[in-house]
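Researcher: Quick test of sequence recovery. Tokens follow.
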């Protein structure tokens, strides 16, 4: 039986048994003020004050799986609960990818070792050295055109998640990575530094230059460099294309 057939059969069985499908959610702190907390505390019930201090919090940047409450305000993860928002700020975001579940993070020692492996995988993505000053006001303003964009610690889908930006929000872009698919960026109120992907291979455009007519076609780095007046990027791209040709 193929993977899709197995998935379809499993989903049909759950539907027949009246079981709700568990969906992946990103534990996201991009909308909340700077805090020393490294994760979102589980609750024993649908009450923000009913915190479970016997378990480790779900780390920010991790992906949890659970089922939504009827009012859509809570996510049930096995026998515990996580709030969708805290003080009006969204802390759980529906995503299309999977990750380590909170039970794997907080239950058995061997599963904690799996989280350590996950962190090593994050750190295996190298951060390119800066080729120009990353100073606010000296970069190119890009607007998020997808519903939500992930900001990562390095240019790669396997890199650690630092935060997110939602549709209509801006990031200030600087360097390009070697693939010309990612840009170093400053984002948020604190102007934190990370990397943003401009076009996703499956989901299409993620961010586009602010004030420029939108195009669904993948962004052309050479055109973007010319529009930004970046002689350094133009020289680099032309030299690389000549070598490749």
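Model:
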């Amino acid at each position: 039986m193929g993977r899709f057939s197995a998935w379809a059969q499993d989903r049909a069985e759950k539907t027949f048994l009246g079981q709700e499908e568990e969906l992946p959610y990103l534990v996201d702190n991009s909308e909340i003020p700077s805090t020393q907390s490294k994760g979102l505390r589980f609750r024993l019930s649908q009450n923000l004050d009913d915190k479970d201090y016997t378990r480790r919090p779900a780390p920010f940047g991790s992906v949890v799986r659970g089922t939504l409450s009827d009012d859509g305000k809570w996510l049930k993860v096995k026998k515990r609960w996580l709030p969708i928002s805290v003080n009006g700020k969204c802390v759980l975001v529906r995503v299309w990818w999977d990750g380590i579940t909170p039970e794997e993070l907080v239950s058995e020692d061997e599963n904690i070792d799996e989280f350590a492996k996950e962190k090593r995988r994050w750190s295996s993505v190298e951060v390119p050295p800066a080729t120009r000053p990353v100073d606010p006001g000296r970069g190119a303003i890009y607007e998020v055109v997808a519903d939500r964009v992930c900001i990562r610690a390095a240019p790669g889908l396997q890199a650690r998640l630092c935060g997110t930006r939602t549709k209509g929000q801006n990031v200030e872009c600087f360097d390009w990575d070697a693939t010309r698919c990612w840009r170093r960026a400053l984002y948020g109120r604190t102007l934190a530094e990370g990397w943003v992907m401009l076009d996703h291979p499956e989901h299409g455009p993620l961010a586009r230059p602010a004030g420029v007519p939108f195009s669904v076609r993948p962004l052309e780095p050479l055109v973007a460099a010319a529009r930004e007046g970046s002689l350094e990027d133009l020289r680099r791209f032309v030299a690389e294309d000549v070598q490749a040709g």
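The chain has a mean pLDDT of 80.
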